[in-house]
Amino acid sequence: MTPKFLRRRRERQAAARGAAHLDAQLRASADIAITAARRALRHRMPTLSLKELARDRERVNVQDVLDVAHEHFGLTDVDRERVAAFLRARFECRTGALDLITDAYDD
């Protein structure tokens, strides 16, 4: 028989581990979406003129991250605002503003 306080503690720890795991999956999904957008831009680069190259940017959307999260991790019911927050964080960390634009700041 497990004491009640130990059971509650284990439940809290399990919930914290689950939240940390979801955060890691969302962070990875944002990174994958950013990488895919950069690859798409890199494939278009040879066809762009120098003038277009200076101002052409690829777009990475919150929906792209949600699609990656569903495809890679099977996540179906994720809060859109939470995904936008992770996309903003990874976008800023990976200097996305140099070659990408995002709608994560609109959400």
What does this structure look like?
With 107 residues, this protein is mostly helical. It contains four helices and two strands, in the order ααβααβ. α1 packs across α4. It is elongated and about 70 Å long.
Could you spell the SSE succession in H and E letters? Answer: HHEHHE
**How many beta-strand elements?**
2
The low-pLDDT segments are: none
The amount of helix comes to 55-70%
Taken as a percent bin, the fraction of beta residues is: 5-15%
Look at the helices and sheets and give the structural class: mainly alpha
- Widest beta sheet: strand line-up: 1-2
Summarize the structure.
The protein contains four helices and two strands, in the order ααβααβ.
Task: Present the secondary structure layout.
Elements: H1 4-44, H2 50-55, E1 58-60, H3 62-73, H4 80-93, E2 100-102
Parallel strand pairs: 1-2
Helix pairs in contact: 1-3, 1-4, 3-4
